[in-house]
Design brief:
The chain is built from 8 helices and 4 strands, in the order ααββαααααββα. The protein is mainly alpha-helical. It has one domain. The chain has a two-stranded antiparallel sheet. The protein has a two-stranded antiparallel sheet with strand order 3-4. β3 and β4 (200-201) form a beta hairpin. The radius of gyration is 18 Å and the shape is elongated.
């Protein structure tokens, strides 16, 4: 697949999620404390958060694999494939090796998707890109590095929601220093902190920034 349709699909999903988040926010008279959220709200937001992470991770995976196999970027330029990248399974295996800084990178195949890296983790993605060196690697590295803040914020809140305990909640609270924040009792409540420069809710701002990052990545 060429890279432009990958971004188009991600952007479409991101804007749908923004619309859902906006509708949720509009339905609340004020989101100013943990007491603003009901149990039903938190269940809805866990689904919204999970889908956000899934869509972002899928884009990152497909972008790296297609770039390694050879593709056409968003400007219509041909991206030459890596000679070792014979198949998706070969790239998957090399990414696992790169994530764990093992060698040789190439030669094996990976048939087990659960062994793959956490694709949405931009730190892991940078490590993999630096090791695999696809032809458009500089473009990808610059783009994913630019989206580090929003991607890591979503990852931190998502992980804290999936593994909800006191230590992870402390990590979420520390994230609040970058936002107009209130104390939270469940990680998903932080999705509606406000990004001070944009004036948008954290989740909405992150989705918009990740769409920009994805567009930069495809070239």
């Amino acid at each position: 697949m060429t890279l432009l349709p990958l971004w188009t699909a991600f952007d479409t999903s991101a804007q749908s999620l923004v619309a859902l988040a906006s509708s949720f926010g509009a339905g609340k008279p004020a989101l100013i404390s943990a007491s603003s959220f009901t149990l039903q709200d938190e269940c809805f937001l866990e689904g919204l958060l999970s889908r956000t992470w899934q869509e972002w991770s899928h884009f990152c995976r497909e972008c790296l694999i297609e770039s390694s196999l050879g593709t056409v970027d968003g400007s219509g330029n041909v991206v030459a494939g890596l000679p070792q990248a014979v198949s998706e399974q070969h790239v998957s295996s090399a990414a696992i090796q790169a994530k764990h800084r093992r060698s040789p990178l190439w030669g094996g195949t990976n048939p087990t998707l659960r062994l793959e890296p956490t694709w949405g983790d931009v730190d892991a993605l940078v490590t993999i890109l630096q090791a695999l060196k696809p032809a458009n690697g500089a473009q990808l590295l610059a783009a994913f590095s630019s989206g580090h803040g929003p991607a890591k914020a979503i990852q931190l809140i998502r992980n804290a929601a999936a593994h909800n305990h006191a230590q992870n909640l402390v990590d979420v609270a520390a994230l609040g220093s970058s936002y107009v924040a209130y104390p939270v009792t469940h990680p998903t409540q932080a999705l509606f902190w406000v990004e001070p420069k944009a004036g948008d809710f954290l989740l909405i701002h992150a989705l918009q920034e990740l769409s920009i990052t994805a567009r930069l990545a495809i070239g």
